[in-house]
Prior knowledge:
Porin, GMP Synthetase, Chain A, domain 3, globular
Amino acid sequence: MKKLPSLVSMACVLLWPALSSHAQGVGVASLGAVGGLNIPSAYVLGTGEAAFSLGNEDPNLGTNYNHQRNYLAGFGLGAGVELFGRLNHNQNLPNQQAGSAELIGGDLSASLKWQLPLEAKGLPKLALGLTDYGGDAAVFFRSVYGVASDELGPLRWSLGYARSEQSLMPKAQRVLDGVFGGAELRLWDTRATVLAETDGTRRHAGLRYYSPVMPWLSDAQLVGSVQRSFGGSKPAGSSADTTSFNLALVVPLQTDDATREQRRRSAMQALKPLPALDVAASAQAATDTERLANLYAALRTTGLDRVRVGTIGTDLVVEYENQRYLHNEVDALGVVLGLAAEHAPATSRRLYVITRKAGLVMFETSVNVPSYRAWLRDAGESAAVQATLGFSRLPGYNVNSVQWAHGTAQATTRLRVRLSPLLNYTVGVEIGLFDYSLALQARSSAPLWKGAELYADVVQRVDNSINMNPGRFFESSRHRNGLQTLALQQSFWLGPRVFTSVGVGRYQYRNLGAEAQATVFVPWNDDSVHLRGRAVHLTDDNPVLGSDSAASASYRWHMTPTTWVEGGLNSYTDGSNGPAVALTRWFGDTSLQMFARKGGINTFVGLELTLPLTPRQGMGAARVQLGGNPRYAQPIRTLLTSGTDKANTQKPGAVRPVDLSYKSEVELLNSGRISADYISTQLPRLRESFYLYGRALMP
């Protein structure tokens, strides 16, 4: 303990004159938190940042396993909160000469940290946290702690106090217990640092390297560490000092407004200045008829479908359907608003843009043309645009009064094919670290009439682990080949606030049934009520997971345009009933959901990460259109143990909520992100998408 201050002091004296500012970025500690080698710091992942880490440090202080791995995944949830999940997989690899058996052990846990919202000159960052909390009954390094951190030139330091619970092994040393602290010092003008610390039980020293930000990998950063521990001992009393590594990938899940503005300006610099639109200022100004024709041609060139252009008096009206920009409807809307504002007749005062899906009007966005045009050119303020920005789920005028000049409401695309992976898996069980079944799903859909689609899902298994083969422990999670779904889906509005979608057909390979879902937009704010249900007649001799009838009713509270809390009641696929609550946080086009579901005597908690698996700008409208999944979801969950049920057993079919084959919220409602508040927060993205995908179509 006394060696740590002298080590840090000596490093500062020797290296201070040659050091510059601290390396950018944060490191991930082996316990599962932003911090040093082992200890947490008061720093946290930024809002929308994710960290994925692999290391072989043994925090269990000297178990008899000869192969250790730590797998970490962390997320910055905003408001100074970070959440980490950790899988510690230990394995005693068999020694063939000694004839020893292969032993496997693991620990699945979660860690949470909150950086206190205190900002004052001279005050360090302060945070409270806990480690090793989760569904597993095994407790190896559970602690609660408080920590302070700050930076002084090239030196970053942390000091804290922790209280830990007794490990599952009574004679083992505790981890992160008592006073802990450490320092990280940058080495000259390199991106490398040297670290020294104590976790209250052992001392650690190591080197860390921060890679430059990688734009080709969503501005991610690699952070690698090598460390040596001192002072650890095994339960039998022998030394447990080891050398270990840790490699972390820190990646932002969302693009900030500054980055969007930089991209937009880069696109602007490569293009000619926008032409003057004032008729009096240009002797060669196009006529109103020519402008409308040019606008229609430009919108069609961008790959949009069901494009129509018309006028109501001096107002410009544009309709479109988007199946190309699948990350977010905002991208398509930005292209349409930008092109329409630039091509609008000189006398146009207001622009109305109607967004359709499956031929149905989903929402209308309107804006003042001169204000939006000036803002596009950096000659106007965003506040002026926001003041004139309108949004509603139905047109604010009589559609029959529109004088349509060009286009048709008929779809060009006759067949859409979307490819998506399917993954069933287990992690950290006594049988193995990771068992999986991987398949590819091809969904073919064809529009029939307004609101109607015929779709079919075909599944082809790609690979699976041995434990998911027939007759093995996880055979029920193995994907099947063949026609998974063949159904007719009809969507429609029941008035201005109730959107409904109903499907009938063959689901889960051979089960006949029906699905229904309704979204009710409450009149007093942006909250919504969600009803979902499925009723099937089981004709399959070997039903798959989630094939039984199920239903749910929930209320979604929009805390902010990008943060939702949803709670309700469920009838699960295993026949149990109970409540569920979920917190969803959007980071750009990626969302992270934390959920808890209770059914009967079982309670599961977990995370679900959703992201688009398709290019931001995909294939345009054509007879046959090929694309990816606009919203791929991958959950991980664990059974919450109790005093009467301490075994964190695998129950693959238990407490599964209704999982509809056709998700109208994803397909038609921009994954729930449709509100006036949400659109108003997306102005930087609206302008960026125009310059990335629409500006090249201007003279």
